[in-house]
Every structure is written in structure tokens, then in C-alpha cells.
Amino acid sequence: MKFTGVDFLGLDSEITAEERLIRDSVREFVDREVKPIIEDYHRQGKFPLHLTSKIGELGLFGAPFKEYNLPGLSATAYGLIMQELERGDSGLRSFVSVQSALVMYPLLTFGSKEQKDYWIPKLATGEAIGCFGLTEPGYGSNPGGMLTTARRKGKKWVINGTKQWITNGSIADIAVIWAKTEEGIRGFLVEKGTPGFTTRDQHGKFSLRASITSELSFIDCEVPEENMLPKAKGLKAPLMCLSQARYGIAWGALGAAMECYQVALEYAKTRHQFCNTPIAAHQLVQEKLVWMITEITKGQLLALQLARMKDKGRLAFYHISMGKRNNVWVAREVAKLAREILGANGIVDDYPVIRHMLNIESVYTYEGTHDIHTLIIGEHITGFPAFNPPKESC
Amino acid sequence: MKILVFIKQVGDVEARIVLREDKKWINLNEVPMKINENDQFAIEEALRIKEKHGGEVTVATIGGNKATDALRKALALGADKAIHVEDNEWYIRDSYALAKSMEQVVNRIEPDIIVTGSQSSDLGWGTTATILASLLDIPHAWLVIGLQIENGKAFIDREMEAGMIEKSEISLPAVIEVQAGINTPRYASLRGIMQAKKKPIEKISVTIPDNRVEILKIFEPKTTTQVEFLEGDPETVAKTLIEKLRKEERVIE
Ligand SMILES: Cc1cc2nc3c(=O)[nH]c(=O)nc-3n(C[C@H](O)[C@H](O)[C@H](O)COP(=O)(O)OP(=O)(O)OC[C@H]3O[C@@H](n4cnc5c(N)ncnc54)[C@H](O)[C@@H]3O)c2cc1C
């Protein structure tokens, strides 16, 4: 059964013909190039690296940006791309998210002209792959506590520390690394093969298997002075990057949810149990399907409004938090319900559901865990930051 | 080289089929539309001719409002301009009526070569472009799976029965009706999609002759389940099964 999208409220008419064309082109790409191979890559725990140049040809890297002749898409079109990619696999969407939002975005926003001139064209075609190193073994939700340091030594910076859970880490040609300096947190470009910089892949993952996650280690790793991102100052810079990526996830997660829903719906209509009736005719199954499509539809409305606000420059980080928090949660619940509806077939990779269900666990945790987004929105509406444990004084 | 591609927008049969109340056609408001599969290969073939020999690709379709989506897609893939023959009743036209409309487009463009799919996935008559060739009194080739152009001639491979391939040479202008699989169609890149906005879609109206064929109704044949038990030892059963699959069901060769 071909994936035709989930559009209960006719939201297709709210997007432009061009946005539909973009979405359908990516959908076709995913159907032809990703769907036939993804379960195999997922089993083997490998990323389908051969897709990189094709994604580059399509123009999906850096699609929302205008500089360097990039496509400069609307926020909706960019979101729809993320949706379609994640319908393929969350690992694939992560790959494109990292390249666009966490590598090209900081370069374009905080980089020097030389840095941009050199890297942006290569990243846009996929000739170069990037990664983003913020998280450390001891600092995940609280990256501000990072231990990685960079200190000046003549015309060089010397980096020491460890980054963990870094998507694309070992395959990246360029790593955007955040480190503490005397002047606060700064960003650095570290090229693959720089002495003192080594990577090690994370094995034993049961989620996001078709994506590479690595540990990066820096031991007296020296990079030239001009490898610092000149305009990135303080923790705000990496957080701005995360906002870009989180926006994409708010759309992406819906892609995974929509596929799980469609597979479950088809399955329920064709699987017969008790008196030879389709399981879709049972009230309990209908309730699950209705819950799924209702939450997906609400998620779509949320994503669409975020897109409109983004295009008007009115989107704040706490708005994005609501999108990421809600839509990834929806995808998580939908995947779980779809798995239930498929019964035993729900646990095998003949169907994409179990893969999506496992993938979403990563998406739920990275880019700010669900609960961290709760605290971000909570702080915004109450005025009380609740990240740190309550002080003893009362 | 002036290359003209005719494409048709059809209901996406892989998605879902919803019939109209009068059962004479699919419900065009309910069924998602796409470019007919064979025509996607025709567009790709046309783009390859242009890339090799230079020239211009015009893509044309006969259809209602929604048909612009198909043209936009073709422009995004790389066609240079588009012609939209406005006909809100395109779906009830027979091959002859369609070919008559197409003839008028051809006379306007005066192409060196006309490329189209061998048949449409909705009606599947596979005759429209052949009738067009005869109206224009030019050669044509159906089920083309290979195409080379040299010295103003087309060298073509045609798919024949029993896996055989026919090689032939035909003079241009000609109507080339391609078969799915002749090439690998490209994707519409974001750049292509953005550029398509600036490419022209010319809307024209043509005189349309009366139909000679009328569709009375479309329906799903009643399926009956028949079970047949094959008797004998495993070897005999396997042999009979192969025989039946080959001769009666014709699902294997
Ligand atoms: C597959 C994958 C890919 C990743 N890719 C990247 C990457 O490319 N680059 C990168 O920098 N990072 C990446 N990450 C890391 C990711 O961003 C972190 O895992 C995430 O920020 C959570 O950090 P943590 O795992 O250390 O969990 P912790 O921060 O230790 O959190 C553990 C639990 O405690 C909760 N918690 C923490 N603090 C609070 C609080 N104040 N109040 C209430 N609850 C709290 C959390 O919600 C969570 O449930 C990736 C992670 C995964 C799984």
C-alpha cells in the first residue's frame, strides 16, 4: 500500500502547489530509494551513506537558507521535507537535520566568510558531512555544565574533552564543537583527521539503528585560530541551532506517526478475527485508530501554525518546545498503538512500525528531552525556572 | 531539436480508487492524481534527448484545472515550457478525440520528435498516440525501450513478445511511445521546483470532435473463490501446479 499521507482536515489546501510538489518529490525519493532498503540497514545498524549525494542533488541540505544559492524554502516546505524523510526513517531525518540545522545553520549564522565559502557549498551537495558536538558523558540536559575546554596557544586553540552521542560523529568531515573558553562557551570547527581528535561509534543501540552515533574525543587537539566561529558567543549560540533542529523534528515526528497510522489502518481493515470480521470493526480498535488520527491532525495544525510564525519571524524557542514536545509524544503513542493493532506482526520488521516505535525513543530524548521541554514551557508561562532542584531555604 | 512530450494526469491507482456516483469514471475529487507512469519515462527520455542534442522540451497535456499540477511537475523536472489544452471533460474523451486535440498542439509547435507513454494507466487503450501519428501522417513506434537519435533518424528498440527485442530505424519527425523502464526518471530537485515557477504554461483551447466510444460503466468484477485440491504424490502435485500456473493462470512463463 502506497503512502498517501494523512489529511483528515484537508490541510493540503492550506499549503501552496509548490510546497505540495516539494513534499511529493521527497515522498517519491523515500518510496524509491529508502523504503526498499531501510529495514536491512536498520538490522545491520548501518547508515545508508550512498544516499548522501542523492539528497544533495535533490537540494535538501540547507533547504531553508537563501545564501550561497541555497533554495530558501518556506518554513512549511522545509517542515514537509522533514516529515517525508522521517516517514522513511528517523535516522535519515536526523542526518539531514544535523547537516542543515546543526552544521550549515551555525556556519551561516556565526561563521566567517572564509568558513562559509569553504564549507557551505560542500555541505549543500553532500560532498562533506558535518556533525554537532554539544552533549558530553556528564552533561546532556544541562549542556552549560560542559567540561570540554579550549584554550589559546599562540595562533591556535587547544581543545580537550569528550563529546558523546554525536550523530554522524565518525563519518563527519567537519565537526562543530562547543567548548568552554576564558570568554565563555564558543564554537569551533574541527576537521576529520586533526591530530588529537578521535571518534568511536556507539554500539548496542536499539533505537535509531540506521544512524551513526559516536563519541568524540579531543586530547590536546590543536585547531587554527580561524577555526573558531567568530559570532557564536555563549550557550545561546548552540541553543539557537537546537531551535532550528527542533522545529524540523516537530514536523518530522508526524511523518513517522502518519506512516504508523496508515499501516495500522490498512492492517485493521484486512486482518480478520472473531466471526471473520476485520479487527477494524471492533470498537476497541476503532478507538485506537480514532485517537491516532485525532492526535496526528492536532499535531499537523500545531506544525502548520509554527511554520507560519517562523516565516513571519514570530516564532520563539518556547513555541518550538511545544511543537517538539507534543508531536514527538504523539508519534511515540501512535507508534505504540499501531504496534498493538498489528499484534505479533507488530514486533517484526516486515512492517515499519516497530522500527519507528524504537526510533522515536531517541527522538523523544534528543534535542531536549520531553521533560526538559515541559520545563521550558513551564518557565515561560509561570515565570519560575524549575530546572534546578529546589533550594533548601523555605 | 524541438521535443514535444504529451503527458496525462491519471488517478493514482496505487493510492485508492473511488468511483463516481454514476459509475462512469473515478471520482476526481477523491482520488489523488499523478502523472501517468509511462509518461514519466517519456519526460525523462525527452530531457535526455535535449541534454545530448540540445534544443527545447515542451510538455503538453489535455485536462481540467488540476492538470496544471502535472505540468508544473514536468517543468520542475526540467521541461522548458508547457501547454495546457483546457478541456474539463478530458476523461470522457476517446482516443480519437484526444488525438485530434493533440494534433492541434503539434501543428502549433512543429516538433522534430514527439515522445509520450505507450499507454495510460487509467484507460489503457494504448491507441491515442498511434492515432495521432496517423493523423499527422508520420511514423510511430510503440512499446519503445531504447532510443538513440543520429543524423536526423531515430534508432529504436522495441519490446516484443517472448522477451525478444526488435531494432529498427525510423525517420523523424515521429511519434515515439515509450515503455516504463526505458530509463530511470529523475526526481524533481528543489532547484528545479523553484525554477519551474518562472517557466510559462500556455493555456489553449482546441476544437474537439465528438466521441466515438462511450464508457457505460466501470465496476469491479465479482470475485469467486474456487478451491481445487491437487491429488497425488508431491512430485505430481508440483508438476500439475506448475502446469496450471503456466497455462491456466499464466502467472509464470
Ligand atoms: C541517538 C542519539 C543521537 C544524538 N545526537 C546528538 C548530537 O548529534 N549532538 C549532541 O550534542 N547530542 C546528541 N544526542 C544527545 C542528546 O541530546 C541527549 O541525550 C539529551 O540532551 C539528554 O541528555 P542525557 O542523555 O544526558 O540525559 P540526562 O540529561 O541525564 O537526562 C536523563 C533524564 O533525566 C531527566 N532530567 C534531566 N534534568 C532534569 C530536570 N532538571 N528536571 C526534570 N527531569 C530532568 C531527563 O528528562 C531524562 O528523562 C543524541 C542522543 C541520542 C540518543
Task: Supply the key terms.
heterodimer; A: 394 residues; alpha+beta; Butyryl-Coa Dehydrogenase, subunit A, domain 1; Butyryl-CoA Dehydrogenase, subunit A, domain 2; Butyryl-CoA Dehydrogenase, subunit A, domain 3; 3 domains; four-stranded mixed β-sheet; 10 helices; 10 strands; 16% strand; B: 253 residues; alpha/beta; Rossmann fold; nine-stranded mixed β-sheet; 6 helices; 29% helix; binds flavin-adenine dinucleotide
Concise description?
The complex is a heterodimer of chains A (394) and B (253). Chain A is an alpha+beta fold.
Describe this entry's structure for a reader:
Chain A is an alpha+beta fold and 394 residues long. Chain A has three domains: 11-125, Butyryl-Coa Dehydrogenase, subunit A, domain 1 (Orthogonal Bundle), CATH 1.10.540; 130-233, Beta Barrel (Butyryl-CoA Dehydrogenase, subunit A, domain 2); 237-382, Butyryl-CoA Dehydrogenase, subunit A, domain 3. Chain A has helices at residues 17-44, 51-58, 75-88, 90-110, 113-125, 236-270, 283-311, 317-341, 353-365, 370-382; strands at 130-133, 149-153, 156-167, 174-181, 184-191, 197-201, 213-224, 228-233, 272-273, 277-278. Chain A has a four-stranded mixed β-sheet with strand order 1-4-5-8. A four-stranded antiparallel β-sheet of chain A has the order 2-3-7-6, with helices on one face. A two-stranded antiparallel sheet of chain A has the order 9-10. In chain A, strand 2 and strand 3 (156-167) form a beta hairpin. Chain A starts with 16 loop residues before the first helix and ends in a 12-residue tail after the last helix. The model of chain A has no long low-confidence stretch (mean pLDDT 97). Chain B is α/β, with parallel strands linked by helices. Chain B is built from six helices and eleven strands. A nine-stranded mixed β-sheet of chain B has the order 9-8-7-10-6-1-4-5-11, with helices on both faces. In chain B, strands 2-3 form a two-stranded antiparallel ribbon. In chain B, helix 2 (67-77) crosses helix 5 (190-196) and helix 3 crosses helix 4. The A-B interface holds A 1-2, 4, 17-18, 20-22, 24-25, 28-29, 54, 57-60, 63, 71, 73 and B 12, 14-16, 32, 68-69, 72-73, 76, 187-191, 193-194, 196-197. Residues 98, 132-135, 140-141, 165-167, 208, 213, 362, 365-367, 369, 371-372, 375, 387 of chain A line the site of flavin-adenine dinucleotide.
